[in-house]
Amino acid sequence: MSENATTETTGSAPRRPLIPLRHEGAEAVEPMLYRVHHLTSYRYAKPVSRNFGRAHIEPRATPHQRVLSHEVVVDPAPARLTAHTDFYGNSSTYLLVDTPHTQLDVHSHAQVTVAERRYPLEPMSRPWEQCTPEHWGSVLPDSGLDFVHPSPRIPAGTAAQEISAAVFTPGRAIGECLSALTALIHSDFTYDSSATTVSSTLEEVLAARHGVCQDFSHVGVAAVRAAGLAARYVSGYLRTAPSAGGSLGTAPVGEMIGSAASHAWLSVLVPGTGWVDIDPTNRTFVDQRFVTTAWGRDYADVPPLKGIVVGPPGATSTLDVAVGVVPDSPAPPTTASPA
């Protein structure tokens, strides 16, 4: 699979153009340094007495990303604010507010460097059949099998098997398969923030062909697992540009979708190069515009914020989320960390 975009064909009929992939021989690009601010705001119609939550909003160290600083600030001041590292190495924050309040603001401030991702040509050119667990060798511990099997939000036997069969054809190069899967979901599904909720099922998304980044990532993971490969759900952020007033409210860079809130994509294990991340929402391989916070089997493992609120009947709430990922001064060299 070359770095230049090619066209996927079936017989003589041209189909979706394949997206380019940066290989090791490409010219090096300097790491990017970002200031990241994530604000989640709840407003309650009546005072609530207790708020307990768990947030996955801290960027994590990866082979391509270095976390220089991170702080979580909660208003009103919490009685408890503690950090936790889960089974997959994600950092999360537990918070408890136990005084009456009508609003809850959770801020995450971070500074990170993000290096480019370049992949060896030989592993990405191998047939996808050589990426199944029996070909892993010692590349992953047994926990990697979690990403091969069905999970609570991504069950087996869905209509995603048809997508999988259309992409993972016999002998096709894994790099080409990932490019084709990204292009297929992007072209066949419509981004519509009103079409689904966080509780929408995979089958509902597959039937409606509408949804958001969370939904498209679930579809991609389901298609990859249907082929017997390992795929994980990844949450994070997209680079943004400051608004005219310079506030946290942001405008997307170029045509990137999902840059004003939390974003999601998927990652596929390719022996010989590791995890390869693709974003079907924006039809691209993940690059320096992306900041990773957490990964798991599906959304249920790594929601940005979930919890329990104790209050009187009728204590309904409204939710607002704003994200800023803004380039900072030139970045220092990035130190790789284990995936």
Automatic annotation (TrEMBL):
MF annotations from Gene Ontology: peptidase activity
Pfam families registered for this protein in UniProt: Bact_transglu_N (PF08379), Transglut_core (PF01841)
UniProt xrefs under InterPro entries: Bac_transglu_N, Papain-like_cys_pep_sf, Transglutaminase-like
All residue ranges annotated as the Transglutaminase-like domain in the record: 205-282
One GO-annotated biological process of the protein: proteolysis
Keyword entries, A-Z: Hydrolase, Protease
Protein name: Transglutaminase-like enzyme, predicted cysteine protease
Organism: Brachybacterium faecium (strain ATCC 43885 / DSM 4810 / JCM 11609 / LMG 19847 / NBRC 14762 / NCIMB 9860 / 6-10)
